[in-house]
Amino acid sequence: MVVDSQQVNEHAMKVAKKLGVEDAVFLSVVGSEQMVRFANDSLSVSKRIEERVLSVYLARGGKRIVGGSTNVEKQGIESFVERLHKTMVNLTRDPAYVPLPKGARKFTRPSAHDEGLGESEKDVSEAARVAIESARSAGAKRSAGAVEATLAATDILTSSGTVGHDVGSSILLNIRSFTDANASGHGLSCSSTLKGLDAKGAGRTAGEHSKRMQNSKQPSEGTYTVLMSPTVASNLISLIGSFASAFSVEAGISYLADKLGKKVASPSFCLTDHGTIKGGLGGRSFDDEGTPTQSTRLIQDGVLKSYLHNLGTANRFKTKSTGNGGWIEPNPWNLEVGAGDSTYDEMVSSIKHGIILTSNWYTRFSNYRTGEFSTVPRDGTYLVENGEVTTPLSGLRMSDSLERLFSSVVLLSKQRQWIEWWEVDEPTLCPWVLVEGVKITRAYGSSP
């Protein structure tokens, strides 16, 4: 049994070179996840998952193929690489093929992960208990949610001799609390270390909102100033990161197409993607093609500065890879929104007629090319009149386009929070965001 990740990669590379491939990349990922779920204030599921995956990229004669296998025994590796190669030679040439760069690189990143994450059931369960108790103390009658702690090591080997080893860790807590069927609140905390997790704060936030949301009302339809929490804003900003992928631009499904050097947001809005960043929950020092990752400024003072590239898109756009490959498409690693100079209280007091959104679900696009979307606020939504928070709201929908919305940003908070959960795929460091002129309608259907 081959167990060492670099040994797995080296053995796979020997097989590939024997078959005559011109380019090859092998990525071995070993992950460990500890997860606890809870419902009705009680822990209901606790499990640990360990997984080893070998991802493979092969190219020869302008043809290329990718695949993945969880069988890392010696014979399993040989069989998998051979079958993948056999399939590749029967494919047509790929006009988008770009050879891997020549020259070997070696990647090592100073340890920044929490070795205990993904292994300690006690710590994960305790985080859930702390959140539950905090929500109850804040007024919740019952809570449900999950805590997931992950530790993942990635090793790369390319046919040009590039090697690298990187380890990342993260812990994510989500809690949804209720005082009755229509009064709910959501809290979350995520961190790259156990020490950075604020389980008590997440529980308190969920509990307080569930208490305040009692006797909620539907709003009048119209245009409002909207204050988005980091949770809500990150959902939309992570989508901007995806639209900034050169693959999305080429595919005709990005509102950022043909807008390099043009204004796409408010002058106060800046967005950066980081391959690695202190506190970041995602990212590596190398991408899937063996290119060094970096910090890429996507939007500077409201102007679109760059797309995200892998080797292929960079070649077609006549630029350099940004280290965001993706064998098929480039993707963000860790997104950061620049901080503003306002406090939360200052932002609320500036609102004449508006709504505070703390959580949202079901963001859907009616037109990817123009960035038109709608989303459903839930779990802590409030009317603000003349700087005073007045009525809890439910049963509403926010509709807008990403460009119009972020071009109408008027204030950003000093405070920022890392956000990642099932509505935010890319970890995002985000402030509270105040936006003018947002269309609010009633959402018909089931209660929140």
Spell the H/E element sequence. HEEEHEHEEEHEHHEEEHEHEEEEEEHEE
| Structural classification | alpha+beta
Instruction: Give me the number of helical elements.
Output: 9
Determine the fraction of residues in helical runs and give it as a percent range. Answer: 10-25%
**Biggest sheet record:** 13 strands, mixed
Shape: globular
Uncertain parts: none
Name the average pLDDT.
95
Share of residues in strands: 35-45%
Verbal overview:
The chain has 448 residues and is α+β, with helices and mostly antiparallel strands. It folds into two domains: 5-210, 2-Layer Sandwich (PmbA/TldD fold); 216-448, no CATH class. 22% of the residues lie in helices and 40% in strands. It has helices at residues 5-18, 74-89, 121-137, 199-212, 230-243, 246-251, 311-316, 344-349, 402-407, and strands at 23-39, 42-60, 63-69, 106-108, 142-158, 163-180, 183-191, 222-228, 271-274, 295-300, 303-304, 334-337, 353-357, 360-367, 372-377, 381-385, 388-392, 396-401, 409-421, 424-442. Strands 8, 9, 10, 11, 12, 13, 14, 15, 16, 17, 18, 19 and 20 form a 13-stranded mixed β-sheet that branches. Strands 1, 2, 3, 4, 5, 6 and 7 form a seven-stranded mixed β-sheet that branches. A hairpin with a 2-residue loop joins strand 19 and strand 20 (424-442). Helix 3 runs parallel beside helix 4 (199-212).
